[in-house]
């Protein structure tokens, strides 16, 4: 699982379109990130702020190190 997909699915628990709105980008940008691209520093700051606004405990390492496996992947 990509780092951004982990953040979107496991931390925010939203769709690509919803995550795009949080980050101020298009859904296509989120799709590119999940396929191996990376958000800019400004986009990372927007994601971090969205987490703070939602009282989500944040860890910047999630941008770079997605977990090897998470429980929801087993169900797919």
UniProtKB/TrEMBL annotation:
Official protein name in the record: Helix-turn-helix transcriptional regulator
Classification via InterPro entries: Cro/C1-type_HTH (IPR001387), Lambda_DNA-bd_dom_sf (IPR010982)
SUPFAM superfamilies: lambda repressor-like DNA-binding domains
Domain HTH cro/C1-type: residue ranges: 4-50
Transmembrane segments: none
Species, as recorded: Allomesorhizobium camelthorni
PROSITE patterns in UniProt: HTH_CROC1
GO terms for MF: DNA binding
């Amino acid at each position: 699982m990509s780092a951004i997909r982990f953040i979107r699915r496991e931390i925010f628990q939203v769709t690509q379109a919803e995550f795009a709105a949080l980050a101020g980008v298009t859904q296509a940008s989120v799709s590119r990130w999940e396929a191996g691209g990376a958000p800019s520093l400004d986009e990372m700051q927007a994601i971090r702020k969205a987490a703070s606004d939602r009282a989500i405990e944040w860890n910047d390492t999630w941008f770079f190190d997605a977990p090897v496996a998470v429980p929801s992947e087993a169900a797919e």
